[in-house]
Amino acid sequence: xxxxxxxxxxxxxxxxxxxxxxxxxxxxxxxxxxxxxxxxxxxxxxxxxxxxxxxxxxxxxxxxxxxxxxxxxxxxxxxxxxxxxxxxxxxxxxxxxxxxxxxxxxxxxxxxxxxxxxxxxxxxxxxxxxxxxxxxxxxxxxxxxxxxxxxxxxxxxxxxxxxxxxxxxxxxxxxxxxxxxxxxxxxxxxxxxxxxxxxxxxxxxxxxxxxxxxxxxxxxxxxxxxxxxxxxxxxxxxxxxxxxxxxxxxxxxxxxxxxxxxxxxxxxxxxxxxxxxxxxxxxxxxxxxxxxxxxxxxxxxxxxxxxxxxxxxxxxxxxxxxxxxxxxxxxxxxxxxxxxxxxxxxxxxxxxxxxxxxxxxxxxxxxxxxxxxxxxxxxxxxxxxxxxxxxxxxxxxxxxxxxxxxxxxxxxxxxxxxxxxxxxxxxxxxxxxxxxxxxxxxxxxxxxxxxxxxxxxxxxxxxxxxxxxxxxxxxxxxxxxxxxxxxxxxxxxxxxxxxxxxxxxxxxxxxxxxxxxxxxxxxxxxxxxxx
Length: 531
Ligand code: GLC
Hints:
The chain is an alpha/beta fold. Helices cover 25% and strands 15% of the residues. The protein contains 13 helices and 19 strands. The strands form four sheets. It has an eight-stranded parallel β-sheet with strand order 9-8-7-3-2-1-11-10. Strands 12-13-14-19-16 form a five-stranded antiparallel β-sheet, with helices on one face. It binds alpha-D-glucopyranose.
């Protein structure tokens, strides 16, 4: 808890992706009772809160991000009673619970979308979504040039009640995920009621899926040529992302969150490339936090990381919000693979844990799991893979069920030994059970680092850091009182001058003859200085 008494300002969140965390009933898919059983793992790891990815009733066209009933629990994951038990148990262990909410779209099986299909063009039922007539003489062309994030056009044509080819509806993701019309007041009030439903059940907050996408530019104009890549889009505005009116929605949500006691929060999943645009989501009357994707995208490069850290701290402090740091989630390749090695991922971890603000971890990173790159095509389930005809590998490789212990064929994931995606044989050496006994393991490093982050007076909080001079390819900063973080992002060892007492390092640090230390390549170290 930071000095302001606001638990979330420097909290460490742990993302639980329920289908891959722990399976209690043996169907090969993780579930809520499985999460309950494994909550002690999170308490012992030393995180403050968990964020649960969607568990709602869903046809699972996008692993549950296609929600058919936003107030329930899919039988695959358990029951509402299981959910209540999870919240109670987590709270009893001192863990807060944040849940995903998916407001940009529903499932095509949501009662509203079924009603829209059964109703004529121009009806109230259709106006909850974005139905439009097509272009061209017979309306046979999509209404505009927008493309789906999962490939192909962002529009699908429906058949009207009389069987004739009809209107088109917008889906920025899969066709099974029709976009809602956030200019419709009924949509707005429905989501306020959904927030209350879960707040009343005791959740501590929400992670808002595609938070930057809810409002589309009036008239749905063509997007034109979309710049390639993340940086290319830095200064480009697309008519479906990050529209100014989206902020009114979150002002309304904030008022609801503030009505409840106990500091309920919301964090935006907003893929906007610049920290300034991200900070707009965390102005004092809006959301509490936003995921720092510019940091995740910075790679393992000292100059780029320093620039993103500075821009993030500046932007966050200007609006009075805590910065956040994130290296992994269920949508991106796991950090050891993305950054080019476990040594780099662990160095990146100690770096982010030393920064002011809040940190988001993704399940399995505490075990040092790599991306599974060789999943057979016939087990892959991500719509990105399926809709691109296999040209894009998709996100299944970071969603492989966790290895818990030596038990059975699925390494303790499921009592029947099945797992919905096959686990690599090499993970037998990486089970939580094996690592907990080994002080040199990744899990032990995570536990020690998280404990130090809680206990050291300079860590936590969301205040300032002071950069120190350091050689090319390294980063060094100080936080008061008495803490220095020194990271070597190069391949070669660097000799650091005597700094103080070593608190922790992501790889063994040797003494140098002059009282200094030798920091191996791709290593971050924490030091206690002064006093
Ligand atoms: C978010 C989720 C991702 C999902 C998409 C559509 O980006 O993190 O998993 O596919 O939204 O809901």
